[in-house]
């Protein structure tokens, strides 16, 4: 894991151990994990963050260029599978990064292995171009992502 991904995991583990303890939205079978993080040609790191209360797509920046973006704003981000709406997040320790909610709740995941398998499949789908030749540049919905409609 790179320093950025390690810092991301450490940050959310501290949240899990603190203010999230005992809340009903927390799945005690899960832990904070980074799955499939890889650098793109520009140096940004993209992967899935599993937390006991959510699963998100996360993009960590290669530079501080995103620091001018207001927290909470949305930006379109292109991946091989299509374009996605990402939310700008800012943290004192992590800096600015982008997220997209994959699962608002992870209480139905029975264990870590299942959550990891789902996260790995999402990373694989995101890394594949859309099946339709005319689909280049289109924005995929969450439904298309999870049903495999955007996958070849």
**How helical, in percent, are the residues?**
10-25%
Estimate the mean pLDDT confidence.
91
Structural class computed from helices and strand pairing: alpha+beta
Q: How many whole angstroms does the radius of gyration measure?
A: 15 Å
What form results from the Cα inertia axes? globular
- Termini gap: 29 Å
Task: Give the SSE string.
Answer: HEEEEEEHH
Count of beta strands: 6
- The fraction of residues in strands falls at 25-35%
Largest sheet: 6 strands, antiparallel
Strand order of the largest sheet: 1-2-3-6-5-4
Q: Which residue ranges are poorly predicted, with pLDDT under 50 across at least 5 consecutive positions?
A: none
Number of helices: 3
Please describe what this structure looks like.
Helix content is 24%, strand content 30%. It has 152 residues and is of the alpha+beta class. The protein has a six-stranded antiparallel beta sheet, sandwiched between helices. The longest helix has 15 residues, at 3-17. It is globular. The two termini are 29 Å apart. 26% of the residues are buried.
Q: How is the topology of this model organized?
A:
Blueprint: H1 3-17, E1 33-39, E2 45-51, E3 54-60, E4 74-79, E5 82-91, E6 95-103, H2 112-126, H3 142-147
Antiparallel strand pairs: 1-2, 2-3, 3-6, 4-5, 5-6
Short description:
The chain is of the alpha+beta class and 152 residues long. It is built from 3 helices and 6 strands; from the N terminus they run αββββββαα.
Key phrases:
152 residues; single chain; 30% strand; alpha+beta
């Amino acid at each position: 894991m790179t320093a950025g991904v390690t810092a991301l995991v450490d940050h959310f583990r501290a949240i899990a151990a603190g203010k999230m303890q005992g809340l009903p939205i927390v799945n005690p079978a899960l832990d904070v994990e980074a799955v499939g993080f890889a650098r793109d040609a520009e140096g940004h790191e993209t992967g899935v963050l599993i937390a006991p209360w959510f699963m998100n797509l996360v993009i960590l920046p290669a530079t501080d260029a995103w620091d001018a973006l207001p927290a909470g704003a949305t930006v379109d981000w292109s991946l091989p599978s299509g374009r996605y709406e990402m939310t700008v997040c800012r943290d004192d320790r992590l800096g600015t990064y982008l997220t997209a909610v994959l699962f608002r709740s992870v209480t139905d995941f029975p264990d870590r292995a299942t959550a990891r398998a789902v996260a790995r499949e999402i990373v694989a789908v995101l890394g594949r171009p859309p099946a339709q030749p005319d689909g280049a540049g289109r924005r995929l919905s969450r439904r298309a992502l999870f049903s495999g409609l955007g996958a070849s």
